[in-house]
Amino acid sequence: MRPRSAIWLALGWVGFALLPWFAGSGTQPALAPPSPGPAGSALIDGLTNGRWWLLPIALPLLLALAVTALPGLRARRPAVLLASGAFGLAWITVQGFAIGLDGWASGWLGALFGPLALGQGGFGAGAALTALSFLFLMTNGFAGLGFMKGDRFTAGAIGLVLAAIAAFVFLPVGYVLSGAGDTGSGGFSAAALGARLAAPDIWRLSCLTEAKSCGVVWNSVFLAVMTGIATTLLGLAFALVAVRTGFRAKKLLRVLTVLPIITPPFVISLAVILLFGRNGTVTLAMSDWFGLPASRWIYGLPGVLLTQTLAFTPISFLVMIGVVQGIGPSLEEAAQTLRASRWITFRTVTWPLMRPGVANAFLISFIESLADFGNPLILGGNFEVLSTKIYFAVVGAQNDPGRAAALGIILLCLCLGAFWVQRQWLGKKSYATVGGKGDNGIPSQLPRGIKIAAYATALPWAAFTFVLYGLILFGGFTENWGRNNSLTLRHYLAAFDLSWGPGGLIWSGRAWGSLFTTIEVAALSAPLTAAVGLLTAYLLVRQSFKGRGAFEFLTMLSFAIPGTVIGISYILAFNQPPIELTGTITILIICFVFRNMPVSIRAGVAAMSQIDRSLDECSLTLGAGSVQTIRRVILPLLRPAIVASLVYSFVRAITSISAVIFLVSPKYELATAYIVGRVEQGDFGLAIAYSSALIVLMSVVIALIQFAVGERRIGRRAATPVTLQEKPV
Amino acid sequence: MSIASKAAGVEFRNVSRRYGNTTAVDDVSFTIEAGNLVTLLGPSGCGKTTTLRMIAGLEMASSGTILIGGKDVTRLPATDRNVTMVFQSYALFPHMTVADNVAYGLVVSGVRKRDAAAKATEGLELVGLGGYGQRLPSELSGGQQQRVAVARALVLEPEVLLFDEPLSNLDAKLRRKMRDDIRELQQKLGLTSVYVTHDQEEALAVSDRIIVMNKSVIAQTGTPDELYRRPKNRFVADFIGGANLIDGELVGRSGGTATVALGRLTLSVPDPGLPAGEVLLAIRPNAIRLRTGSADSAGDGIPVTVRKATYLGSHMEYGLTSEFGDLFVVDPNVASPVPAGATALATFTGDGIAAVAR
Ligand SMILES: Nc1ncnc2c1ncn2[C@@H]1O[C@H](COP(=O)(O)OP(=O)(O)O)[C@@H](O)[C@H]1O
Ligand SMILES: [Mg+2]
C-alpha cells in the first residue's frame, strides 16, 4: 500500500506546488500563464496573488504526508488518507464552483461573505493532477479499511470511473436542468422552468383542429412511432429472409448491417435528395413522363420518415436476427410432431417467442429516431422535431440557451423513458431457448404466405438501399446532379486537392483541415474509450461490490442520452470555470469517449462473461496480483473485444454529428459538421464527394481490421466474434 | 533443481462465511497435519467449496481465524498465500502453451524465464506429460488437461495444494486412475493436500483423514476406517457406505462394546458413548445374511419377506420387508439365491453395525 499511496501523494504535491493551477489564456490545459494573474501553482498563487482560498488544499496534503512518512501513525493511515482525500477533493470542487472569473459565482455568496476582489480561471494541469491524486488517496484509504476485499486497484478503478461519469455526464446534464430555469440574470427560478417547459409551440395540438402545425413534441413522437413500426417490420422481414429461408445472397444482406456504422447519419438524406429532390432523378423522370410538376414534398415528414427508416432498418435487422436465431428450432419441431401445421406453429410458437424481441427492436428504433439530428436538419423543412429545434435555439438568431435546455429536458425524458421501458421488457420477458447442449434441430421453413411477404418487403428495400449508396458514390463525380450530369472531378479536387508550392506539398483542398482534425480526434478518443469501457466492464463482470447494480445503470444511462442533449449540455457546462473546455480539441475527445463508452462496455461485458472466472482465480492463487492477472490473462483473451471497441469508437467518432455540431470551432472543425455546413450552403457536389470519401475510408478501415482480427484463433477454438451491434443514439 | 515440498499444516478456528442471510460455512474448526491428504466430503451445497476457497484466500472468512503453517493468514489475499489449487474446470489459460501455463506462477513471482521453463518441464515430466509443453490446452484430452493443472499447481511448491472436485469432468475409468495417480504423487512429495468431493468412495480411497460436512457444519472428522466403522451420527452413517437405519435400544456396555436390543435379539456394537436407552442402529447392507427356513426357528435372526432380488454377478441385492421396516442387503452368496416372494431369516454378522443417536 505504501509505494502507490506515496506516488499519488507526490503527484498531488507536484500539482499543488509546481504545475500551473489554472488553464492557460486559451482554454486548453496548457502550461501557459493563466489568464487572470501570472503563471503559477496554487501554492505560489495563493501566497503571492491573494487567492487565499487555494491554500487550504495544503492541509490534506500535509496530513497525508504525515501518515505516510511517520511509521508511528501506520495504523491510522487508511482512515487519514480517506479523510484527507475526501476533504481535498471536496475543497477543490467547492471553491472551483463558488469562485468564478470575477469573484463569487453567485450573488448570495457575495452577500454572505462580502465581496471578493479577485476571481479565478478554469482548472488547469495542476488542479487536474491534484484532484486525481486526492481521488486515489481516497480510494486507497477505502481499500486499506478493508472495503472491496482490500483491493486498491478495484477501489481506484471504481473511483475513477464514477468521478469521470459524474464530471462528464451528470454535471453537464445538471447544467441543462438548471439552464432551463435560468432567469436571464444568472438565477434559477421554478417559474421560468415551468414556463419554458410548457411553452405552447412544444405541446399545442392545433394540427388536429385547424390547418396549423402541431407542437414539436408531437411531431417528434409521431415520427418516432412511425419510424419504429416501419423499421421493425422491415428488420423482421430481413431477419426471416436471412435466417429462415434458403435465400442465396445472405452475405449481401449482412453487408447491410455494416452500412449504418460506416455512414454518417445524414448521408442517406443527401441520397434521397438526389432521387426525390426538385432536381432528383425520379422527380425529373416523373415530370418528363407524366407531366407531374416538381415539388418539395420530400422536405418534411415524408422525407424524414423515409430516410430514418432507411438509416435504422439495418439496426433493427441486427436486433431481429439475434431474436430469430435465438428461437430453438427444436421447439418448432416439437410443435410439428404434435400435429401443428407450419402456419399454426408460427402463430403459436415462433411468434410468441419473438414478441419481446420485436418490442425491443421497436423501442431501439424509437429512441434512434427521437435522437436523430442529421436527417431532420437536412430534410425537415418546416417539419420541426426536438433535436433540430434545440440546435436552432442555440445557433439560430434566437440564441436562447434556456429554451434549448428546456427542449433538451423533454427529449431526454422521452429517451430515458423508452430506455427504461426497454430494460424492463428485456429483463422480464426474454426467452433464450437455444441451449448449449444436444441437437437443436433444423430451423423450420416459413409458411408460404409469410415467406412471400418477407421477400416482397425485404428485397426491394435492400435494392433501394443499395441504389442510394450507389448514387452517393456516383453523385460526387457529376457536375450538378439533375441539371448537368456531365462527369467531372471538380468536387473531389475542391475537397482533396494537393499542390506543390515553394514550401513543398500544400494540402490545398478545402476538406483536408477538417479531415485531419477528425482523424486526430478519432485516433485520440478511440483508445481512451476502449480503456474506460473495458475497465468498467471488468468492474461489472469480475468484481462484486455494494451498489454494483446502480453502478451498471449509471454507466448505461449515458447510452440513452441523445447526442443533441449532450451537445447542449457540454456547451452549458464547459464554457466557464471551473471546467472550461469549449473551443478546444479536448472537449471533442471527451464527448466521444463518453458517448461511445457504453458500446465498449457492452463489448467488454459480453467477451468477459465468456471467460471463466476460475481463470482469474487460478491466476491469483498462483501468486499474480489483480493488475498482473488483467495484463497476462484477461487482456490477451479480450483481444477481439478490444479491437472491436477501438474500431467502433474510431469509426463512430468520424461519422457522428449530433453532439459535436455544437462543439466544433473554426479551429477544430470536424468532417461531418463541415459537410452539413456545405449542405446548408447548397454546395451538394462537395458534400457528396466528401461523404463518399468518408464511406470508402471507413469501409477500408473496417475491412482491414476485420481481416486482421478474423485471423486470430485460440487453439482449435474460434475467437469469440464480437459484432459491432450497438449504436449510441 | 527439483520439485520439493514445503508442506505446512492448516488450522481453522471457528470460521464462518456468510452471504447476506445465508451461512455457507458455520463456525467450523479443524486441524490438518502437514503432509496429509484430507478430504472435505459432503452433499452438494454443504459448504465444501467455500471452505476450500477460504484456505486459498479466494473467499474471506466472515469471522474466525485461519492459520497456515502456524501463521495467521485470515486477511491475506490469495496472491500472497503460498497455496495453489486445481480447479474443477482446470482453468488452463487457453492462450498460453502448456509449458507457459505451468511456468505462469513462477514467472509472475519473478523467477527468471530460463529457470521457470526448466522447472515447468520437470513438473510436466512428473505428471507424465514430458514432451507436451508446446501444445495448447485445447489440443489435449480431458485427463491430460487435468495433469497440466496439477503440474501448474505443483511447481510452485505450495504449502498446501487444493483440489476442488478434480475428477468430476472425467469418465469413470479415468477417474479411478487419476485419483490413484494424485494420491501417489501426494505421498511421494509429502504434500499437504485438501481434496473436495461429494463421492464417498473417492474420499475413502484417497484420504488420510476425512472431514464430513453437512449443512454448513462439520458432521464428523476421522480416518476412513473410523468413519465407516464408528459413525457418530445418522448422517455420516448413511452418507458413507450407506446403511439400514432401524430403531433399537442400548441396554448395556462392557469394555469397548455396547449391547443393543433389537426386538428379541441382542447385538454387540462398538460403544457409541451414548447413554442407555433409545438409539438408532446403522446396519451396513453387507452385514446382513439371508437364510431360508421357517420363521419360528428364529433364535439368532429376524423373519423377513424378500420383496425383490437382483442378480449382479458378483453378489445379490435384496430388498426385504420386516417388522423393523424395509432392509437393503448385499449378499455375496450367488450360488443359492433366495427368490422374490419367499420368506427367510435375516441374521447379522458381527462387524458392520453401529449405534448412533436417534
Ligand atoms: N457467492 C455466493 N453468494 C451467495 N451464496 C453462496 C455463494 N457461494 C456459495 N453460496 C452458498 O453457500 C452454500 C455452500 O456453497 P458451496 O461451498 O459451493 O457448496 P459445495 O459444498 O457444493 O461446494 C450454498 O448453499 C451456496 O448457495
Ligand atoms: Mg462445490
UniProtKB/TrEMBL annotation, chain A:
Q: What InterPro entries does this protein's entry cite?
A: MetI-like, MetI-like_sf
> Where does it mainly reside?
membrane
Location of the protein in the cell: Cell membrane
Membrane-topology descriptor = Multi-pass membrane protein
PROSITE patterns named among the record's database cross-references: ABC_TM1
* Ranges that cross the membrane: 53-73, 80-101, 121-143, 155-177, 221-243, 255-277, 297-324, 404-421, 452-477, 521-541, 553-572, 641-664, 684-709
Please indicate if the UniProt record lists Cytoplasm as a keyword. no
Does the keyword section mention Iron?
no
Q: Which Pfam families match?
A: BPD_transp_1
Keywords associated with the record:
Cell membrane, Membrane, Transmembrane, Transmembrane helix, Transport
Record's family?
Answer: Belongs to the binding-protein-dependent transport system permease family.
The protein depicted here goes by the name Iron ABC transporter permease
Record organism: Azospirillum endophyticum
TrEMBL record, chain B:
Identify the residues that the record assigns to the ABC transporter domain, covering every copy: 10-240
Annotated protein name in UniProt: ABC transporter ATP-binding protein
Organism in which the protein naturally occurs: Azospirillum endophyticum
Q: Where is the signal peptide?
A: none
Task: Enumerate the UniProt keywords alphabetically.
Answer: ATP-binding, Nucleotide-binding, Transport
Keyword Cell membrane found: no
Molecular function via GO: ATP binding
* InterPro entries documented for this protein: AAA+_ATPase, ABC_SmlMolc_Importer, ABC_transporter-like_ATP-bd, ABC_transporter-like_CS, Mo/tungstate-bd_C_term_dom, P-loop_NTPase, Transp-assoc_OB_typ2
